Records
---
Amino acid sequence: MQVSSLNEVKIYSLSAGRSLPEWLSDRKKRALQKKDVDIRRRIELIQDFEMPTVSTKIKVSRDGQYIMAVGTYKPRIRCFDTCQLSQKFERCLDSEVVTFEILSDDYSKIVFLQCGRFVEFHSQHGHYYKTRIPKFGRDFSYHYPSCDLYFVGASSEVYRLNLEQGKFLNSLQTDASESNVCDINPVHFLFAMGTAEGRVECWDPRTRNRVGVLDCALSSVTADTEIEGLPSISALKFDGALNMAVGTSTGQVLLYDLRSSNPLIVKDHHYGLPIKSIQFQHQLDLIISADSRIIKMWNKDTGKIFTSMEPEYDINDVCLYPNSGMLMTANEAPKMNIYYIPVLGPAPKWCSFLDNLTEELEENPESTVYDDYKFVTRKDLENLGLAHLIGSSLLRAYMHGFFMDIRLYHKAKMMANPFAYEEYRREKIRQKIEETRAQRVQLKKLPKVNKELALKLIEEEGEEQQVTRKRKQKNLPSLLKDDRFKVMFENPDFQVDEQSEEFRLLNPLVSKISEKRKRKLKILEELEAREQEEEEEPEGKASDAESSESSDDEKGWVEEVRKQRKLLRQEEKVKRQERLKEDQQTLLKPQFFEIKEGEEFRSFKDSAKKQKLMKKTLGDRLKLEEKLGTLNVSDTTVGSKQATFKLKKSEQQKRQQEAEKQHRQERKTLRRSASHLRSKRGRGRLFH
């Protein structure tokens, strides 16, 4: 059992501690209780008071004997008998339960509103009847004088189901688009419903007419509250004949007197979460309001906080056991929490032993947690050199550490680390400097290469972000963060040469813009140098923003282009003059050229002809080749053209060919002369 205290109000958590799994046998459970001290000391007020996964709603029957809870998974209801301190029955359902109501004094008549628009009725033996409503329901209330069920949900109508006649009656037509909650006053049976527009509509069930409307959304907005959207009504509860509490989806609770349209008090939870449950505690005039994170108890007359509780898991529902100080919660966890607050009232009759137990705990002050004690772990004790105190009266073992007197802790820390104050002072000074630095001009770290280009990209990116915010478009990725262009800002080979002719002609207005960027770069470099030199001194005010000048006029653009062209001509003229001076100063020396082996030097004209030929276009060269006979162009049958080239022969090849030709002619003449001599000899023999 855990004990906590806030505003001197002690809260006992009866469900704290480990729970044993259901599948363990009784023998194993007894063996674990003998071995484990924590299991032996835990208080299991109601046996197996939990759900398989999550519990969503919890209620107590009017006779106080039965506690019913719904949860998942699978969707089910569990009924616990307080006389036996155990579970009485469990019933599984077809779909999850949105909310339920106990119509009888015990568990014999129950109505469930389920997710699939189903309304299911259960009697003492189990399932009795099932019907369906036209729209998805969110809440319902039972009107006892007429036996009518009023259903509200995702519709502008309030559906009425009469349980005596067993049929649907004419629905109530409201001005709301949707309704979230509803309640019926237990004294004069006024029906009230909370809408999604932040209004509460009150109806008279006798005449079926609307008698009043409260604009709670407007009243919930005060000077201290901060809201992001229109508050809708998420909780509603009557107290007596005249009081009504309303909870909003933005975390405010409004207390109304039905005779006035203005709230008596507005209480903000300061978490911005919807109010899940509102309960009234009449003994101390308290209102118990809960969102998914915290349960707050506050005075309904002054709004002063009485106490609060923050469970470990999110809260789904809160139930106050009538005429007692016991509080039960349904959580986003298997175990349902039970709290006992003795100040609110005595323990219920079925667990009256809690009063004696709490009185004994109050008599023994060592078991409570004091503000004058410091929690330390074993490692902290070793660092402080107090590990030898383990087991003595100066240390109180608790969970995974120990409690020790805060004065002893401070003395030990001062002795272990005498320069702790100096470190603390240094840290505080550093924090102050960081706060002042945040008010200064935020320095942008620019790359070493192409700084001006990076600054230009940053400026364009800022302008694009403003445009995309206005148009609600997605931001494009930055070039500076793109890995593909990372080398451009790291490698000096990619440095942009702004003095080149191409750059200056392509960017005629770059001079003015670059001057501005250079000034900005100079300011950034000065600020960086100043920050490195002065670490602890606050810097002065930031320089005024430079006046932006529009440079989109066509006239200015033309003039700038002309200026750039004039400058380029002047620079070219200066370069030519410098070259002439250099030529005059230099002495001409003879140059020697080496001719390749096998070639014969004729003149420099051939090289000049070759250069002229290379400057001509391909078409001109083809025509020239065609004239010389080295190229033959002919049409084919398909319609295309066929070009045949003849390779040019070198001078050496030509000489070889001429020598071969001459050699062949000489051989021919020799053959002819030889054949002529043979023929003459043959003729002479014949004559003899």
---
Amino acid sequence: MGRAVTVATCALNQWALDFEGNLERILRSIDIAKSKGARYRLGPELEICGYGCSDHYYESDTLLHSFQVLEKLLESPATQDIICDVGMPVLHRNVRYNCRVIFLNKKILLIRPKISLANAGNYRELRWFTPWSKARHVEEYFLPRIIQEVTGQETVPFGDAVLATKDTCLGAEICEELWAPNSPHIEMGLDGVEIFTNSSGSHHVLRKAHTRVDLVNSATAKNGGIYILANQKGCDGDRLYYDGCAMISMNGETVAQGSQFSLDDVEVLVATLDLEDVRSYRAEISSRNLAASKVNPYPRVKVNFALSCPDDLAVPTCMPIQWRHHSPEEEISLGPACWLWDYLRRSKQAGFLLPLSGGIDSSATACIVYSMCHQVCLAVKNGNADVLADARRIVNDETYIPEDPREFCKRVFTTCYMASENSSQDTCNRAKLLAEQIGSYHINLNIDAAVKAVVGIFSVVTGQTPRFSVYGGSSRESLALQNVQARIRMVLAYLFAQLTLWARGMPGGLLVLGSANVDESLRGYLTKYDCSSADINPIGGISKTDLKNFIQYCIENFQLTALRSIMSAPPTAELEPLVDGQVAQTDEADMGMTYTELSIYGKLRKIAKAGPYSMFCKLINIWKEICTPREVASKVKHFFRMYSVNRHKMTTLTPSYHAENYSPDDNRFDLRPFLYNTSWSWQFRCIDKQVN
């Protein structure tokens, strides 16, 4: 009868402008899909060139090389007898579109341009592409000569159409269109489309996966149908980590789930589903059928091909499954770890160096690297030849097999405790013990000689010697002395990153890791060009609260008992003199606010789009049990003063893993001035009026 269709979707670790590697991964995914009996294969958004090409989309080279890859795909025997749906940029009548190119047996069936472009948060698609605004309209697209020579076609359909095969009807959505309030799948479903496809470039944010899953399942819950989602995975050259989660859903229930975090460059998901289940599901929804009788039809591209076999009664079909979501602590353990691995192997460096202070933030960063080592050993154990080859190249040993995470950590991870006269023995011991438990190559050094030399130069030139506040100095003097220590640590971190392996008789250099969390960056509680200045920062988008929970997770799952004393110690920069050998400086006292309050300010400022006045109005209700309106006003004013005074620091913030939607990342996510009128006179006067 031809009821059971076998379809494949995938998550590919594509890399912007890596046309060679991207082609290889696409072909590998098609091979796997065919070997599992699939008759249709869906890939991620813009998979041919890689999603994160940014302003390279303006270049004609990007278009040319994309068509050259398409030529290779069309010619490949792997793409025969399977409908292939790939993503690439296409120039149509001098306008750039983000497109799906769908082909079968060396013939292009349809080029489908994206209708709703992603243009919020980290996305800037309207900068490079134009949305297709002609609903249910198809035009002729004149193919480049290199494609004409392969397909024998001069023109192909370009526009908003669906495919009609011998046994069913397929319609495409592209990423953002699923999230739009008027998603195309609604009208397509009413017009008889039974299989919806979505090629995504969707990145990881803590606690976001369930939203994507719910959207996919709800797409077919009201209207019936099969929904197939493909997604990019990995770090493709930027701050984002694309988190896979390829999935297939039918009639509102998930039937196949891909992994959210893994080191596999190619992951293919295949499901066999009964079309009659879609038809019977729709039969009972009278409101849907009434709406369908009035729908404006889509242009149909007829395809002389079937996704099912004539005699398929004995073919087993997939049953609904329960989606398993990771906890936020698991997400922190896995997402940044996979991002670090991609960055390490693609940058062709020999490992990481981390200034390990013995505090929560740098310890959490160290734990993420340790988790990365776990993931590498697990992938090699499971037979991942790509990971094994990368690991051997990184450690410069062609016979090496990473089996023990601690041993691998020793080879690729260097930690460094940089003591000063203001450092306590407690933090030194905590850093050393954690380094022993994760297996890193650990260095202890003292920066006092360098600090004295730098301050000495200032004293020689000016005849003045600055002093800490506890010794009678002004706050300006004390802050300058703290900043000298912090900046010298950055200079030493880069020196040791470049030459530590050389001193040990080993090749290569190390990437410097930063460890400032999202809350400290928002408040500006960091020295510009200190140890927060690094090559990359895996925790720069994660809150202090989540990092504490992650530390507890590492104690329980990695048996890192050294973290217990780190958890119980108050966070401190250790830049001011000790009192009776004990730390007198704490972060929250320095900041004038707690980390919990900072998270609330951050979410209201960015996610709730609140300026000073709106934030005050919201917080007098949220905090009505614990603060008077005057106290709320004082807290809000202090936050905005400190935020605006320090906003300039965000312009040089180390590239960080994006994990929170209230990140202050100045690169493209949180676009603000960096020179403010920090008195906020008009805004604060509005607050004072309400207080009175």
